[in-house]
Write a structure and sequence with these properties.
By secondary structure, the protein is α/β, with parallel strands linked by helices. It contains five helices and 16 strands. The longest helix has 17 residues. Bound molecules: zinc ion (ZN). The site of zinc ion has 4 residues, from loops. The site of zinc ion (ZN) has 4 residues, from loops.
């Protein structure tokens, strides 16, 4: 397959209610649907006026909903390796392509005899049964991703959970995201670079986005960190004292890489960093 006129050759088209704006795709975001079929996904998407570019059935049959140079409403509140200007309502929606695979995720219940694989979900701090992705579905997603990477200046393939961290664990632990990201020809290697700057000289990297969670490592003033994304959480954790009303809020906590390995090492409180990619008006509240 290849891409002609911003559509993957040979895919059937589906029209969604949501209409986007012009964009240059720089990020590919992978999702699961929580539904079994594309028909059910379309009903849910239209009810909420949301949309992905690509929807893939479990047997690998894929549909395209719009040209890749039109944005789609798929990541919601989100940020990824931003250089500057992250606001309360930041989203990677404009400038990204969304692929959604038909998969129930962990919507199986917790019984030991439930289908799927029993795996720990760090976001919910519990064991959950995750639906296995069939080979045909994975192969179809990979082919389309390769076409997208060959056509657009995409610098990373990420999961929805990477860009909206501490939200839905999406596409979940059974999908090989790294295998897709490794196909990126010109990756943006690291996130926003800054250093530790704390009154007591140290900064603890934590497992979760709160100061009571498990300490993973202690950094010292001057140590370099790279911010991958800033985490979302409940209203009480919002940076801003009066953030308005949303389902989730931008927190003080950032997912960081601490050894330039381009991997999540844990979370740090951005108050103790020399600089952040936050919009200056927002950074003032740290
Ligand atoms: Zn998603």
């Amino acid at each position: 397959m290849s891409i002609t006129g911003n559509f993957v050759d040979g895919l059937a088209k589906i029209k969604l209610k949501h209409v986007g704006v012009n964009q240059t795709p720089r990020l590919l975001v992978i999702h699961y649907s929580v539904t079994d079929t594309v028909a059910a996904a379309v009903t849910a998407l239209d009810a909420a006026t949301l949309g992905y570019h690509i929807l893939i059935e479990k047997d690998g049959t894929a549909f395209q909903t719009r040209r890749f140079t039109e944005s789609a409403a798929h990541p919601g509140l989100s940020n990824w390796k931003s250089d500057s200007g992250v606001t309360l309502g930041a989203s990677v929606s404009r400038g990204s392509i969304g692929i959604c695979m038909m998969n129930k995720g962990f919507a199986f219940g917790g019984s030991p005899s439930a289908p799927g694989k029993l795996i720990y979900n760090p976001n919910d701090a519990s064991m959950q049964h995750w639906e296995v992705y069939p080979d045909k579905l994975v192969a179809s997603c990979r082919r389309i991703a390769q076409d997208i990477l060959a056509t657009y200046p995409v610098t990373a393939v990420v999961g929805h959970h990477d860009v909206a961290i501490m939200g839905k664990f999406d596409p979940g632990p059974l999908f090989d995201l790294k295998g897709l990201d490794d196909l990126t020809p010109n990756p943006k290697p690291l996130g926003f670079r800054t250093t530790v700057n704390s009154p007591d000289g140290t900064l603890t990297v934590r497992e979760e986005t709160n100061s009571g969670s498990k300490a993973l490592k202690v950094l010292h003033n001057g140590d370099v960190v790279h911010i991958r994304s800033i985490a979302y959480g409940p209203k009480a954790d919002c940076i801003h004292p009066s953030p308005g009303s949303r389902k989730r809020y931008l927190t003080r906590w950032a997912s960081v890489d601490i050894d330039a390995s381009n991997t999540h090492a844990g979370f740090v409180n951005m108050k103790f960093l020399a600089s952040t990619p936050l919009d200056p008006g927002l950074a003032a509240f740290l």
